[in-house]
From TrEMBL:
This is Acetylglutamate kinase. Residues 1-234 form the Aspartate/glutamate/uridylate kinase domain. Substrate binds at G35, G36, R57, N152. It is an enzyme of class 2 (transferase). Pfam families: AA_kinase. One of its GO terms (molecular function) is acetylglutamate kinase activity. It catalyses: N-acetyl-L-glutamate + ATP = N-acetyl-L-glutamyl 5-phosphate + ADP. Transmembrane segments: none annotated. The keyword Kinase applies. Pathway: Amino-acid biosynthesis; L-arginine biosynthesis; N(2)-acetyl-L-ornithine from L-glutamate: step 2/4. The keyword Kinase applies. Catalyzes the ATP-dependent phosphorylation of N-acetyl-L-glutamate. It comes from Paenibacillus anseongense. Its main location: cytoplasm.
Amino acid sequence: MKCGGSTLAALPASFFEDMRQLQEEGIVTVIVHGGGPAISETLGKLGIESGFVNGLRVTNEAVLDVVEMVLSGQINKEIVRRIQLTGAAALGLSGVDGHLIEAKPVANSHEVGLVGDVTKVNAELIQGIVNLGYIPVIAPVGLGEDGGQRYNINADTAAGAVASHLGVEQMVVVTDVPGIMKTVDGEKQVLPVVSVAEIEEMIASGDIYGGMIPKVRAAIACIQGKVQEVVIVNGAEPNVLSKVLKGTGIGTRIVR
């Protein structure tokens, strides 16, 4: 499951309760989270400048210190706390721990600096945490192959790579929208299923616009390896995770 930083703050307690319920039924959620707004806020307070290029944060060592502090510290532990309040067990870690996520510089690193593309995920470590009865909560900071250099990794990229290396077939992207909308006969409706090709057509026609474009592009990027589909859902919907996993037709399924 990928959860955006801005979405997390608004999630109701029932969302985490649903997660506990699923764990009791033998379905464990692996969470990869972002934290863009909180990172921007902290950078602002510290007077550190940082821009964006095509949705990726320009990252130097000073920015990276803040990224790691906010993601691995503040946000990661907040999610762990909220899960544990339901009585479930959670374990927070970042891609640095146990070489969980290895990365190399992105192709346009000359523009964005220390931003990484995932090259390897230690799936055995995640499986081990699950086997011990914990819900893994992962912050997307990675390490270079030599273990010395840290990289800021886009949360969608990291989530797609983790899902693919774990060999799961379905990934859930938790957002603040009910899915991909299309105007049909003057009314906005959530599309239940959409293919990657159809999304590109909808972006070209203007049916998908604004802030939804990066969301769907990120979801498409998650369809890699064994991941067959990505479901975009609104986290505020009651029992949203259970509904997705039981196939009740909630949100939008993006299929290959």
